[in-house]
Structure formats: structure tokens, C-alpha cells
Amino acid sequence: MQKVKVAVLGGSGYTAVELIKLLLRHPGAEITAVTSRQAEHVADLHPSLLGRLDLQCEPFDPDALKAKGVQVAFGCLPHGTSMESIPPLLDRGIRVIDLSADYRLRDATVYQEWYKETHHDAKNLAHAVYGLPEVYGDTLAGARLIANPGCYPQTAILGLAPLAANRLIELSGIVIDSKSGVSGAGRTPKLTTHFPECNESVSAYSVGTHRHTPEIEQALGDIAGAAVSVIFTPHLMPMDRGIFSTIYATPTKPVSEAELTALYRGYFAGKPFVRVRTAPPATKDTTGTNFLDVCVKVVRGKVLVLAAEDNLIRGASGVAVQNFNRVFGFPETIGLL
Ligand SMILES: NC(=O)C1=CN([C@@H]2O[C@H](COP(=O)(O)OP(=O)(O)OC[C@H]3O[C@@H](n4cnc5c(N)ncnc54)[C@H](OP(=O)(O)O)[C@@H]3O)[C@@H](O)[C@H]2O)C=CC1
Ligand SMILES: CC(=O)N[C@@H](CCC(=O)OP(=O)(O)O)C(=O)O
Fold it and tell me: The complex's ipTM?
């Protein structure tokens, strides 16, 4: 199999190390460069890579990456930083799969409103493709810039997609109650993620203001073909990894659980990473995998969707590899099962 030369940007972070581990098992990928602000060996940044990848991190230099023959760069950088790094790569013909939020929202003014930052790269925003393969799969082959979806949004978008596509729920006032493990906040230390602050504690944050709200609404709006509004509340859980979302919606007509489960099975047929279950999933069922598990229930006239995933794999690095497979024409599951 012809190997694609890849670079990983932001080498010291959590999504970067997960991505490196997935790419090391991928027969169609060759890790050619890992960039970092730290001039360290990758195994010094991540001891779990000891004996698995013998590579010195290098500073971010688009010309050097081009000279090494890099064909695609995975951006594992914070938002804001991403949109500074990505244009020079695209200018040099290097494709990008961006794990940050910088190219997810089509409208730069919506980005500005929710991220409180000006978007500086309208040119590339215009051709970026939202990398949720189960919904936008047809647009991914050959894409130059893929905006990998957010971790929380995937549980909400995929969890509601069959209902939105068939207009079986009211499209305003959908309630999405989500919980995340602490690795969702990245490796850079912060007070809120300091062990004594978050251990043995559950807290809600960014209530009514979380930046994943417009991302969820944009994708569900595409699926439904009409405007969608959600109330999204994230919570920090005292666990390393995993996301669990409980979603409440009002059906537009009487529906049974059996009908909805059959609808979900049909919608996700041929989509290998979404597992439709009849019992509520747990985050542990998905840990270390690219699976997103979903279960739909009817309770007292409301539709409840329960969805779980691993934030670092399905929520970030795994779906990035799924997108890589789509872009380069590899089977969708390669390197991921
Ligand atoms: N964690 C998660 O569950 C998910 C994360 N994402 C997104 O993926 C991206 C990477 O996330 P994650 O790996 O968790 O983040 P981390 O904080 O763990 O890593 C980000 C890395 O980016 C590099 N970096 C470069 N410039 C800066 C800068 N100015 N400030 C801080 N770091 C910088 C650093 O690497 P170095 O020091 O080596 O240069 C840093 O380790 C983010 O955009 C995040 O929002 C998306 C979905 C899920
Ligand atoms: C627990 C925690 O802090 N989670 C992060 C998840 C964000 C993330 O991963 O960002 P993107 O998916 O948008 O890139 C947060 O709420 O900001």
C-alpha cells in the first residue's frame, strides 16, 4: 500500500499523542514530522511512545514540511493558533485535517460571536469541509481542508440526525445535557482542571454560552433543512476521558421506541462507527475506540437520546483518521478497528 506522508502539529498535546498511536497502526500512513514548540524527542513528551516512534520534534516550518514531502498535516493546535498555521500549509499544497474549531462554522461572524475572536482566514473558510463522515461523507474525498468536528457536537448531531432528517421532533428548544472527562480540556494545566478542583466533583460550565452550540445547530440545520435551536449544557466529570450526552426532544407525532430504534438502525446502516443500542450506553463501552454508541427511548411523551463516545478518539483523533481515510480513498475503518 502506498503510504501517505503525514505531519502532526502540536506534538505535546493529548489529541496529538492519540493520533500518533492510531497512525502508527495505519498501513497507509507514514509519520514524517511532528511539530512542537518544544525541541524534544516525541518519547520525552509522551513516554507511552517509547520504542514506537523514533522522531525528534521540530519547530513548525511549512517550507521544511513541504521539503520532506508531507502530503497532509493534522492540526492538533488550539483554535486561533490553527488559523495562523494552516494557510501557509494550504498555500504549499499540503492538505490539512484541523482538529480545532477554526474552520467548523461557515459564517465568520458566528465564529466571532461565540469565540470572541476575529476570523482571519475567510479564503480557506470558504472551501473547508465539515468532517463528520456519517453526515458529510460525500464531500470529503479529495478535500484540501477538513474541519474535524467538535467532541460534544458529535454526540448531539449523530444522536439527533435520524430524528432531524425525518422531522420527527420539534426543531427548537432541544435540550442537550452533556458530560465530559477532564482530558476534553487538553493537556495545558488550568485551575479548573487541577486535580483537587475537579476530582470528586461535578460542575456545569459555559452555561448558555458554550461555543459548541452554533456548531450543533449548523449541522442539525443542514440535516433537517430548517433552522434548529438547542440548549446545550456541558459538565465536567471527575474522569479522564469520555463524553456522555442525554438529549431531550419533543416528538411531532406519536412514536414508539421500537419504531425509532428501527429508524436509527436504518439511518446508520453501513456507518461502521455508530452503534445503535437498545440499552443506554456507558462511556467505558467506547473508551479507546472510534465508536459512538447511541440509544433512543420514549419517556412520558418525550424522545430521549443517550449517546457516548471517547472524546479523544471518536471526539478528535479517531474521526480525524476516519476523515484521512475518506480523503485519500482508504477503506473507512482502516487503522481504527
Ligand atoms: N481534548 C479533546 O477531547 C478534544 C480536543 N479538540 C481540539 O483539538 C485541539 C487540540 O486539543 P488537545 O490536544 O486536547 O490540546 P492540548 O492542550 O493537549 O494540546 C495542544 C497543543 O498545541 C500546541 N500549541 C501550539 N501553540 C499553542 C499555543 N499558543 N498555546 C497552547 N498550545 C499551543 C502545544 O503543543 P506544543 O507545546 O508541542 O507546541 C499544545 O500541547 C484543540 O483545538 C481542541 O479544542 C477537539 C476535540 C476533542
Ligand atoms: C472538558 C472541556 O473543557 N472540554 C472542552 C471541549 C472543547 C474541545 O475539545 O474543543 P473543540 O472540540 O471545540 O475543539 C471545552 O468545553 O472547551
Answer: 0.98
